[in-house]
Every structure is written in C-alpha cells, then in structure tokens.
Amino acid sequence: MVLCIVALVIFGVLGIFSARYRQLTGEAFNCVVRKITLRPCDTKLDEKIRAKILAKVLRHSPQAASFLNKNFEVLSIVFTVIFFASLGYTIYSLYNLLVFGTCDPVTGNCVFVPPTNSVVTQIQLNGTNYTGKPPCGLEGFIEFYGAECPHCAKMKPILEKVEIETGVNFTKLEIWHNDTNRDIFLTHADSIQKDCGVLGVPTFYSVKTDRAICGEINEARLKRFILENG
Amino acid sequence: MLNKKIREDFPVLVNRQIIYLDSACMSLKPTPVINALNKYYTEYGSCAGRSQHRLGKETEMNFEDARNKIASFIGARSSEVIFTKNTTESINLVAHILEDTFTKDKKIVISNMEHHSAFVPFQLLSKKRKITLDFVIAKEDGTFDVKQWTDKIDKSTQLVVIHHTTNSVGTRPPLREIVKAAHDHGALVLLDGAQGIPHSEFNFKRENVDFLAFSGHKMLGPTGTGCLVAKDELVEKLPPFIVGGETIEKVTLVDTIFLKPPHKYEGGLQDYAGFVGLGAAVEYLKRIGMNNIEQHCQELTKELLNELISMDGITIYGPLDHKKRHAIITFNVQGARPHEVAIMLDDMKNIAVRSGVFCAEPAMTHLGAPQGAVRASLYLYNTKEEVEVFLDALKKIAGMYK
C-alpha cells in the first residue's frame, strides 16, 4: 500500500515527461485503488518495487538486505512519512517563493534566490554617486524601509518584538517616498551593498559599525546583529 | 556436456550478459534460424501455393521443404504436419474438429497436471457437449503410475489428453502404456509435446499417438510457429475448422471441396518466413543431436536439483530424483514471493527465470504452490558455470529471508 502510494506520486510526476512512466503510473493507481478497497494489488507493482530495492542492497551487503527485508514495512512507512513531509514542505516553499519571492520568509534562506537579496525589494541608484557624510543626529540603528514593501511589512512585528526585548530602538526611515531619507540611505550605499550585495529594503543599519543586514530575517539574526554592532 | 562454443550461435548470448533459464517459456534463436528468416524477407518473400512467378515458387519450395524437415524430425509423414501458430492453437484445433464426434455417453480422460492450453479447450467442450472430463490426479510430486491411467481409461473413453513433459515440474507420464490402454479401448490420444519435443528425440509413428501438438518457439524456432501432427487417415474424415484461402480445392455457390490435410487445416496466408525458420531450427537441433541435448540438460538438471536440495530455505516442487525431471526445476524461497525472487535474480546477476503458476494453476495448486513458484528451465546453451552463478545468487536470496 505504502509503496504503491509513493510509486503513484513519483511515477505520476515522471509520467509528465516520459510515456514510459505513464503505464507504471496506471499500475500504481490501480494498485492504490485496489488496496483502498481492501483487494490485493493485482499488478504486483509493490512486489516488483520491493524486490528491486532488495536486490540492489543485496548486491552490496547481505546483512543490510536481510535487515531491510525484515523491517521493510516499518522502514517504508518511515520513509513515506518523510517523503510526504518533504513534499508538503516543498509545496509550502514553492508557494512562498511565488507569493513572497523566497522559499523561507523567516530566515530568507532559499536555494532559488541568492541569499543577500532573497527578501529585499531592490532600489536603483540611477547612476548617482553619493559620497556625503552621515547627517548629524543619527546614531544607533536605522531601519530603511519602503511604505508598500511587503518584506518590510513582514519585518515590522519582528522588529517591534526585538526592540522591546533588547531595549534598542531603530530609527525608521521611509525611503521610497521621502527623498531626504533616500539620500541618507544612499549615503551609506557602499557599506550596505558591501554587506548585502544589493541595495534594497528592508535594511537594518548600524551607524556605529557601518554594517548592514538586509531582507526578511528572523528574530535571532536581528538580535545577533544588534549585539555585534551595538 | 555440449561444447560451449555453441553459445556463439546465439546472438542474444553474445550481445547480452545474461544467464537465460527461461527456455521452457521461450528458447533463444540461433543464427541459422535468424538467417533463414532474413533470407525469406530479403531474397524471395512472396506467396506460396498460388503465385506462378519464380519468387512464389521459391517460397513454396522452401515452405514445403521446411514441412519435410519438421516431419522427418518427429518421425511423421509430411502430410501429417499441420502448421499452426503454437501448441495452444493446435490443441484448440483438435477440440474443434472432434467436437461433433462426441456423444453424451463418452468421456475425455485428462490429468490435473496439464497446461491450461491442453485443459481449458476440453473443459469448454465438456460443458458444451455435456460429456465427462475424467481426471487422473497425479501423485503428490506430480508423477503418475500406469495404473492410475489404466483405471480411468475404459470403453466410454473417446479421447485421452496427456502431456509429454509437464511445464510445471518437468515430469513425464508413462506415455507408451497410456497410449496402449487408450487404443485398446478405441480412444484417441492427444499428446501435448510443447515441453517434450524440444528436449528429446520423438517418433510420432513409433509412439503411435493420434495427435501431437508442439510449438516452434520453444525449440529454437521463430515465435508464432507451431504444429499439429495428426494421423492422415484420421483427419481426412474430420471437418475443417478455419476455412477460406489456402484450404480450398474447388468452390461453387452451393458447395466447397477442401484440400487434403495438412492444407485443409491451414486457413489463410501462412507464416512462410516463420516455418522456413522452424525448418532451420530442427536442422540445427538434428545437427547437435537430440540425445546429446537431452543428456546435456539432464546433467545440468542433476547438478541444479541436488544443490537446491541441500540449500536451506528452499521448497522444491516435484520429484527430488533428477532422473524423473527434464530440464525444469520449480521451487520457492521460503518467505519470499515468487515474483520477488525472479526480479532479484534478474537484478543481481542478470538471471532470467519464470515465476508464477506457469499457465498450470490446477497443477501448481496440486503441488502445493497455489500462489505460484519460480521455475528455472535449461536448454542446450546453458552451462555448468551458469548453474553455479544461479545457485550462488539464490543462496544469497534465501539467506536474506532466513
């Protein structure tokens, strides 16, 4: 049963690309239907898969094959749970990638998106070089954000929580509509680009150390940034 | 043992690293057979028996020459050799042409060890004509005593259906005694020779059976070729079955005069290439020598069976005396399903065996394997080394299920 379900999913996906697997998909489907209706799988697909796996292991290690054979049902259930958990997580990640532009909105780690700009809404410099000094009165930490930036909105509760817990308050500068703030941001462009790879929002910047961290990040990373750059 | 050089005649064995132990299902083909097929298609492929051009005449000559070779191979007259697709069709042909001769008080004596092809046509016939199928039940190991047959065969017996060699365990019944008992009571004998003819010298006249059915594909011949060998004097009186092209001598709007056998039973355009190939196959077998082939297979059977007997975790079906078996060993690995074992042998060492009930469900149920078994079948191209590799792989598999 377990093998048939896994086979149905795998062969179903492979069948999209190759006719060879469509017949196997049909067999797997038939097998699943029969098992659900408490009838034996008449295509013997589960037996074939089991035998092929055991034969491959037996070629390398009779002991491992014997262990696998004796615990085949348990192991197949474990692997099936892992398989479906992975499948669910993959679907969730793909959803995030489509909606938020990253597989993991919390950490920003996503193989499909370079880590530095994974959850950053980028902005353009328009060829201007800003080399001015930081304006007076700004110290500590700054959050550069965009008013409509979805990543900034997601970071808002995280930032608020971190501010309460650490007692550190970020100066929040909106840079999409406020030219003054944008100029301040661009003043630090070199440093931000050096740390983040791109220019974008949200960017968390330490005036003291001239270091930055960008994008959607989790609470722990933000706290560590404050600790290391406070 | 036969010289290993004959393996070079079989392109499959040259081109593929495979240990082929499934010859009871399908034999491999030697180059002379393949060449004969190629020659038909590349040099003269046309119709026999109707076209007057030189290609047609060449086809007819080679086709009938193949019939002569096959007839000589099994000790029959050429006119007695009817070409069919396979053993199944041959046996069905017998069932159909005999149908009208059966009356309610008659019975068919048949064993429970038959292949479905030899059993089902007569099961249908018995229902249709309301005649009795009287079963001779084999001993536990699939063998028979003469008395079991002579007790069943009596004056009401019209037909005895019997195998030459079982496809399930490779055993042979006491054929001559069965034929004698049948003829003493005026019954006909149909012999299913599918497994026996490829492995032993057989003489149709000497064995005195009335019908002999066998397949070409199990004896190095092309697929789709089979024969029904039927006594001339018998089938001349029987009705045709599939009629139309090839079977006709004269047709008017009110009647048809059919050709004499064997052409009376060969409806439609024939597989000329296939039978020319089968002719080449029997020539090849004759050249190697049927006695040599039988001895070679017996030696391998002996080694394989004796080693299996001493192996832990193996259940063997059929007799444990190798002399009672002919090139077929059937077994199960305890705790494993037959198909699993077959797939593992294939995956591990490229060993091809058959698994299942071998189209002989009543026989396998009787032997104690209703869910099927694994069958290793041997032929002239198998070697002692192959048997050793097979045994080694099987030992590992059996060890895994301990």
Q: Mind explaining what this structure looks like?
A:
The complex is a heterodimer of chains A (230) and B (402). Chain A is of the alpha+beta class. Chain A folds into two domains: 2-100, no CATH class; 122-229, Glutaredoxin. Chain A is built from nine helices and six strands; from the N terminus they run H-H-H-H-H-E-E-H-E-H-H-E-E-E-H. Chain A has helices spanning 2-17, 20-36, 45-60, 62-70, 72-100, 150-166, 179-187, 189-196, 219-229; strands at 121-122, 141-145, 170-174, 200-201, 203-206, 211-214. Chain A has a four-stranded mixed beta sheet with strand order 3-2-5-6. In chain A, strands 1-4 form a two-stranded antiparallel sheet. In chain A, helix 6 links the parallel strand 2 and strand 3 (170-174). In chain A, helix 1 packs antiparallel against helix 2 (20-36), helix 3 (45-60) packs antiparallel against helix 4 and helix 6 packs across helix 9 (219-229). Chain A is elongated. The model of chain A is unreliable at 127-132 (pLDDT under 50). With 402 residues, chain B is α/β, with parallel strands linked by helices. Chain B contains 14 helices and 15 strands. Chain B starts with 10 loop residues before the first helix and ends with a helix. Helices cover 41% and strands 16% of the residues of chain B. In chain B, the strands form four sheets. Chain B has a seven-stranded mixed beta sheet, with helices on both faces. A four-stranded antiparallel beta sheet of chain B has the order 11-12-15-14, with helices on one face. In chain B, strands 1-13 form a two-stranded parallel ribbon. In chain B, helix 2 (31-44) runs antiparallel to helix 10 and helix 3 (54-73) packs across helix 10. Chain B has helices at residues 11-15, 31-44, 54-73, 87-98, 116-129, 146-152, 175-184, 204-207, 232-235, 272-288, 290-309, 338-349, 361-367, 384-400; strands spanning 19-20, 81-84, 107-111, 132-136, 157-163, 188-192, 211-215, 226-230, 248-251, 256-258, 314-317, 328-333, 351-352, 354-356, 373-377. In chain B, strand 6 (188-192), helix 8 and strand 7 form a beta-alpha-beta unit. Chain A binds chain B through residues 44, 47-48, 50-52, 54-56, 58-59, 62, 65-66, 69, and chain B through 337, 339-344, 346-348, 396-397, 399-402.
